[in-house]
Amino acid sequence: MSGWDEGPVGVVSSAGSPSQPDHRGDLGGGAGADPWGEVIGQPVAVTAVRAALARDEVAHAWLLIGPREVGQSELTRALGAALNCPEPPAPDTGCGRCATCARILRGTHPAVVDLEPEGAGHVVADVREDWIPSASRSMTEGRRRVLRIVAADRMNEAAQNAFLKVLEEPPASVLWVLDAEDEGSLLETVVSRCRRLDLVPWGPTALLELAERLSIPEAQRAALARAASGSPQRLRALADPEVAAARERHLGVIDRLATAGPGAVVPVAKELSAWAKGRAAAVKAKHAEELADLEAAFGVDGGRGWPSGVKGRVTRRFERAERQAQRQALDLLLDDLAAYLRDLIAVASGAPGSSLVNLDAEAELRRDAERLPVRDAVEALAAVAACREALDRNGSAELQLERLLFRIALPIYAAAA
Ligand SMILES: [Zn+2]
């Protein structure tokens, strides 16, 4: 992640990796778009940031608390455009039309950079060897460097203590944006040095509008917008027909386990984990093509080698993206199972069908609520969370899924016996 100011754009920047899809197109943006118009569903946060810009009182560190990917990326880019646009129409916004704004909004300008966790989280070496040197390097383009720490709540304590030093004596040209779902994982000394902003899940209207822009077939729009549970990231994933089909299979897991008996647990776990691996394989194939293009761009095949360090950086970026693709697929699966179990509990508690997340699976939910006692459904839900944590610690996906499915299925078999 070092070397942001060198090399062809998009090669050394981590922006635009699969976890940070460039979804401007999805939101109807284009040349000349209003940078703040790209930040959907967060009017309170947008007003606060624009007011700070207008008064020239922009904090040097912002802490965005909220669910992942509900506008953190768009908000950071709009802020970066306002701070770096060479001819801003007003102090609180970039023009959205110039080359600088366009690159910032696409995520390919070196002044606005996403710092993604490499593995399970950010570690002290990231802060000392990458963030701090990069923050103090002079800028070759733009006026103000905006560094967004993606999943800042996944910084371990040593990393936070190292990071605290830059927060206490910030270089004047640098602005930090910390994304966190969980404020509790951050040291009070870090939190107290940031200006806090709350980001909220998207409401139904914004999700339905996004569903339409994503060209989700009309018949599925309402159900998938609801299944997204406030997360535009999840809705973007569900817009892929392959992911929507996988969701239907995931919602049918309890039925399969109940019908086929204990012998089905291991094969079903294998099948689910193979699906997640397959999602990463598609990303890998795309990377092979990109590598060939880069070799051509650098003239590598003409007897010249790669410029120093570039291939290592590219390869690390690819590997990280491939790991993330597999993890995202597993998260989609776990989100599906968790939402189904929550709905099961709601059905068992007599909640009306209109309150379900999985509106399109009401009949299946009523059938499965008879199979899995509500107390066991609550425990199964906790097992989904435990599975996620085990995966955070780099546990084997197949083994963790097997363990999860056994915990879901055993009470079903006990209840049937
Ligand atoms: Zn501009």
Query: Averaged pLDDT, please?
Result: 89
Q: Number of helix segments?
A: 16
Number of strands: 5
Instruction: State the end-to-end distance.
Output: 56 Å
Rough outline:
globular
In CATH terms, the superfamily of the largest domain is P-loop containing nucleotide triphosphate hydrolases
Tally the structural domains: 2
Q: What strand line-up does the widest sheet have? A: 2-3-4-1-5
What proportion strand? 5-15%
Poorly predicted ranges (pLDDT <50, ≥5 residues)? 1-31
Give structural attributes.
417 residues; mainly alpha; Rossmann fold; globular; binds zinc ion; 2 domains
Give your account of this protein's structure.
The chain has about 425 residues and is mainly alpha-helical. It folds into 2 domains: about 170 residues, Rossmann fold (3-Layer(aba) Sandwich); about 160 residues, no CATH class. It is about 55% helix and about 5% strand. The protein is built from 16 helices and 5 strands. It has a 5-stranded parallel β-sheet, sandwiched between helices. It starts with about 40 loop residues before the first helix and ends with a helix. The N terminus is likely disordered. Bound molecules: zinc ion.
Give a nutshell description of this structure.
This protein has 417 residues and is mostly helical. It has 16 helices and five strands.
Question: What is the secondary structure topology, with strand pairs?
Answer:
Blueprint: H1 43-54, E1 61-65, H2 72-84, H3 99-106, E2 112-115, H4 124-136, E3 145-149, H5 157-168, E4 174-180, H6 188-191, E5 195-198, H7 204-213, H8 218-227, H9 232-238, H10 241-251, H11 253-260, H12 265-298, H13 310-348, H14 362-369, H15 374-392, H16 397-416
Parallel strand pairs: 1-4, 1-5, 2-3, 3-4
Residues 85, 94-95, 98, 100-101 line the site of zinc ion.
